Structures are given as structure tokens and as C-alpha cells.
Amino acid sequence: MNASWVLQRPNSRGEIMLRLADPTEYPAIDPKYFISDPGGTDLATMIVGVRVNRDILAQSPW
Length: 62
Known about the structure:
- This protein has one helix at residues 41-57; strands at residues 15-17, 28-30.
- Helix content is 27%, strand content 10%.
- The longest helix is centred in the last third of the chain and has 17 residues, at 41-57.
- With 62 residues, the chain is an alpha+beta fold.
- The chain has a two-stranded antiparallel ribbon with strand order 1-2.
């Protein structure tokens, strides 16, 4: 059985930058997951989500 969790409104913000002036070149994408959230709420929320999912999957019907 699989379970997943996701932040619906993360505080972390990444950036997209052009590598070259060539429009056919792929941009440089740095999502900066958890790094750009100075309060650490994104990471704390993800930890709670993991624990909740583990509790749900530990129930007998699963």
C-alpha cells in the first residue's frame, strides 16, 4: 500500500533562471525545498504528515 503527502501551500520558494540567452536552452531550476523557509514550518508540516500516514497505514484494515 502506498501513501503520499504534499504541502498545499508551502512557504519555500525556489527560482528559475536562464542559463543562456538561447531560448531553446532549458532553464536552471532550483526548487529550494525547505531551504528557503526560514521558520522551518514546511519541514515540520511534512514530518507531521509522515507520522499521520504511518499511523493510518499501521491500522488493521491495511
